[in-house]
Amino acid sequence: MEGQKETSVEEKYYIASQWQLMWRKFIKNKLAIVGGAILAIFYFIAIFCEFFSTYDPYKRTKNMYCPPQRIHFFDDKEGFHLSPFVFGIKKELDIESLKMTYTEDKTNKYPIHFFVHGDKYKLWNLFEADIHLLGVEKPGVLFLFGTDELGRDLFSRNLYASRISLSIGLVGVALSFVLGCILGGISGYFGGATDMVIQRIIEFLLSIPTIPLWMALSAALPREWSSIKVYFGITIILSLIGWCSLARVVRGKLISLREEDFTIAAKVAGATDVRIIVRHLIPSFFSYLIVSLTLSVPSMILGETSLSFLGLGIRPPAISWGTLLQDAQRVEVVVLYPWILIPGLFVILTVLSFNFVGDSLRDAADPYK
């Protein structure tokens, strides 16, 4: 019986599809699983950021540069509390430095409630609602990540920023994927003068320093454009360079596959060149394309963050991680109010998670290794 079980397992391994083999090897990488879980949480929160936020991200308060509040389960009088709570805020002006200091007012305690009514919002700009996941009763406040120079809640602003910063990576990579597959497929399949022209264009684009090129193209966007137009403009700009490396991968694969038996058989059967490329050649190495796309998303996110940080990308009032980091350009702000750097932690976590997933997929793409 044990021999039959071992034979059955071996048979399942050798008759498994390429995607099944990739999945089996992928789930063995613990870092990739952790990275995938982090990305799933980030994207889920980004989709429903209005619900997960505690306040309207544009709402100003009188608590400028308030530090993040501590969540408590214990107090001096009653000891342990089953439900978390925060203390009130006491503000004092330092006469010498003219800096507002914040301390906990332990005479006022505000329990943290779930599914509370708060600032109104329109989910996906379609459905009006005012239910938030977390909140406290007035006059209490809940600043989990502190506030900025205008007293706006940074926790809510970071959640709203994730929607733009995370989606711009996917949209940009999708455009790069289409351009890379089309131009790389044409270059590798037809060869000759077409291949030479496309490859010289790719070499020219890759020879241009990336950041100065992005800055020049971003600066060319009209200042009067709306946030939506700027968003799509930045996405297109990031895609103009991102397709080059993918096109080279596609070209190399097609050069090696265009003389294979299944390609010649498709030609003999009367298939058109477009059908051969789209239905036969590209699907044969689609797993490698998935890996390439996964590893390209972090560069798109970093590109948007860099442009927005320099004031050439997403522009206020739109919120992205890059625009939130603009306040960190001043050294004195970083020293006095380090929680302003929290968006950078989200960028680092996202990029690392994508790299973990991409590296694991790259190893899993060769499941017999």
UniProtKB/TrEMBL annotation:
Residue ranges of every copy of the ABC transmembrane type-1 domain listed in the record: 162-358
Main location, first listed in the record: membrane
One Pfam family cited in the UniProt record for this chain: BPD_transp_1
Membrane protein topology class: Multi-pass membrane protein
Domain of life: Bacteria
PROSITE patterns: ABC_TM1 (PS50928)
Subcellular location field: Cell membrane; Membrane
Membrane spanning stretches: 31-55, 164-190, 228-250, 285-314, 334-357
One Gene Ontology cellular component annotation held by this UniProt entry: plasma membrane
Keywords per UniProt: Membrane, Transmembrane, Transmembrane helix, Transport
BP-aspect Gene Ontology terms: transmembrane transport
Protein family per UniProt: Belongs to the binding-protein-dependent transport system permease family.
Classification via PANTHER family: OLIGOPEPTIDE ABC TRANSPORTER, PERMEASE PROTEIN, OPPC IN A BINDING PROTEIN-DEPENDENT TRANSPORT SYSTEM
Listed name of the protein: ABC transporter permease
Species of the source: Aerophobetes bacterium
